[in-house]
């Protein structure tokens, strides 16, 4: 069962009208005009060589920044060369999805190993075979928690706005009431959560670290959530888990996140990887595929798709999820990355991110007009004030080959990873110092 593509012009027009649109171009109205090139307008009769030259000339308009200080959901991490070397093999690239599981043992084994690593990384008991991205994983987790007498979802106001948009879409389409939790000094306050919780709440979703880079008090928030019988969902950065407590250690029910940091390049926005893991009690509600290990009739190790009654292609009338397309190649990429890094390598990466970010925060935050906006502990991202128009600062840094941090409410959300050298940070500080003194 794959995605439905309308075949006729009438079907396409009917779909557009159902969305209140008239032309396919209107689907892209939300994109800035400067990013839309429209038709390539290549004259007919051009040779392959001529077409290639014209398209490559167009590609040169893409701006590539040698220095990046932006995160906000997509992160610039080092990817060991072995990751691409392994995952680019044709046996992996061409394998799509195990429709006939018994003859797809290689794909199933790769998925099983991915699930095992995600469970080890998150400290949870069960993992699925991945979903489209971290935002979808968060929204699917909220749907997982729905019960006959429990429906409302509480979502921290400190989550990534893009994730929040997807959550709202899912909640609207499923008729799930959702309430946004207030933020105090950039974090979700346990007291505010306790005041908002009701006996019929289904779940609470928070992000660790949150959108502002700050560390939430996950254990206290989880304890408050469980007092009323609701489930706790934690959206977590996988690199962060190399250094800090796992969701399992914090007692959460479902752990989700964006797996792009695990060996996937930023790639102009995708494809990405959403991971989901949960306690065994939540296993039968987990969307997507789950691969199990067993033995065949001859006693040899074998892999199977298990608990398939949860999936929409088996019992579609009772399915809560629309997860269908396979993410096996992205999941394998994450597996190869984690295997190459190992526990110590992942911890070293996280430690470098932490140390570099704190060095940068101290240096930038000491400049006039660039004070740190929040006082709580953080990992690799932090928000500062901005004494000038943020767009002007962004343009200035662009001329220097530096991608500025994300603009957030008149301030700047900076991100510093292991890829940012001391020299790069010092250069950033020099430029910001000139801005501050002027």
List the helices and strands and how they pair.
Layout: H1 9-18, H2 48-59, E1 67-68, H3 81-87, H4 90-93, H5 105-122, E2 126-127, H6 134-144, E3 152-156, H7 161-174, E4 178-181, E5 183-184, E6 187-188, H8 190-196, E7 201-208, H9 218-227, E8 231-236, H10 247-250, E9 254-258, E10 274-278, E11 291-295, E12 301-305, H11 328-365, E13 381-384, H12 390-399, E14 402-403, E15 406-408, E16 411-415, H13 422-437
Parallel strand pairs: 1-14, 3-4, 3-7, 7-8, 8-9
Antiparallel strand pairs: 2-10, 5-6, 9-10, 11-12, 13-16, 15-16
Helix pairs in contact: 3-11, 5-11, 6-7, 11-13
Describe the structure concisely.
The protein is an alpha/beta fold.
The spatial strand order of the largest sheet comes to 2-10-9-8-7-3-4
Q: Span from first to last CA?
A: 61 Å
* Proportion of beta-strand residues: 5-15%
As a percent range, the share of helical residues equals 25-40%
**What's the β-strand tally?**
16
Unreliable spans are: none
What count of helical segments does DSSP give? 13
Order of helices and strands: HHEHHHEHEHEEEHEHEHEEEEHEHEEEH
User: What's the story with the biggest beta sheet?
Assistant: 7 strands, mixed
